[in-house]
Specification:
213 residues, Rossmann fold, 9 helices, 7 strands, 21% strand, binds S-adenosylmethionine
Length: 213
C-alpha cells in the first residue's frame, strides 16, 4: 500500500525540502526512540501542513504526539492567535519531544499534554476546527466518538493508518491480527456514521478525512 521507494524519491525531488527542525526530529527519533516507523515523515507531514493552511484553524487537537513531527506540521497553518493541543500517553517522550517544540517558531502555540487522551479529551474546552487522531489503533472508535463531540460543525478530523499497510483487505491477516480488526471495525463505524462526510486517501498507511455535517 505504501509508495515504492522510486515514487517516494520522485515526490521528494519535486517538492520543497524538509525544514531543518523536522529533519532533526526524524534523525533523532530514528537514532534514539523505539518504533521510529511511527513518525509521520515528510510527505505525510507536508500533507498535514497543507490541510492546516487550507483550513486556517484556530484550534487543533492531536491524539498521539510521539516525537512531535505531525504537531509541528499542523501548527504551521494555525491562525496567529491559534493553538494546538497535542496529547501523548508515554511520559518517557516528554523531555525529548518538548525539546523540539522549544526550538520551533510556533512553540507559543503548542500545548503539550502528557496523559491518556481518553481521560483528557472529554475535559477540553474549545471546539476544535481540526483534529488529528494518531493514537493506538484499538481505541480509534473511542477517540473518534470523543473527538466528534469536540469538533465544530464544518470542522475536520484526520485519522492516520486507516488502511494499515493494506492489511484491511488481506484475508489471511484480517481475521487474526487484533490491530487490523480494530481498524476494519473503525472504518465500518465511519462508513455507517451519518453525522460526517468521509474519504480515505491511499497515501502512506491510509489517511482518512471526515467533515462534520
Ligand atoms: C503513531 S504514534 C504518533 C506519531 C505522531 N503523530 C507523528 O506523526 O509523528 C502514536 C502515539 O500515540 C501514543 N498514544 C497511544 N495511546 C494513547 C492515548 N490513549 N493517549 C495519548 N497518546 C497515546 C503512543 O504512545 C505513540 O507515541
Amino acid at each position: 500500500m505504501e509508495f515504492n521507494t522510486e515514487i517516494t524519491n520522485y515526490i521528494l525531488n519535486n517538492i520543497n525540502p524538509e525544514d531543518l527542525l523536522l529533519q532533526e526530529i526524524s534523525r533523532e527519533t530514528n537514532a534514539k526512540i523505539m518504533r521510529p516507523r511511527m513518525i509521520s515523515g515528510y510527505i505525510q507531514g507536508k500533507l498535514l501542513e497543507m490541510i492546516s493552511f487550507m483550513i486556517s484553524p484556530k484550534y487543533i487537537l492531536e491524539i498521539g504526539t510521539y516525537t512531535g513531527y505531525s504537531a509541528l506540521c499542523l501548527a504551521k497553518g494555525l491562525q496567529k492567535n491559534g493553538k494546538i493541543i497535542t496529547i501523548e500517553i508515554n511520559d518517557e517522550l516528554q523531555n525529548f519531544t518538548q525539546s523540539f517544540f522549544n526550538k520551533s517558531e510556533n512553540k507559543h502555540k503548542i500545548e503539550f499534554l502528557i496523559g491518556d487522551a481518553l481521560e483528557i479529551v472529554p475535559k477540553l474546552e474549545p471546539l476544535f476546527d481540526l483534529i488529528f487522531i494518531d493514537g493506538d489503533k484499538t481505541n480509534y472508535i473511542k477517540y473518534y466518538e470523543q473527538c466528534l463531540l469536540k469538533l465544530r460543525v464544518g470542522g475536520f478530523i484526520i485519522a492516520d493508518n486507516t488502511l494499515w499497510s493494506g492489511k484491511v483487505i488481506d484475508e489471511t491477516i484480517k481475521s487474526n491480527d487484533y490491530q487490523t480488526k480494530a481498524i476494519i471495525e473503525f472504518n465500518t463505524h465511519i462508513k455507517n456514521d451519518k453525522r460526517i462526510d468521509k474519504i480515505i486517501l491511499p497515501i502512506r498507511d491510509g489517511i482518512s478525512i471526515f467533515r462534520k455535517l
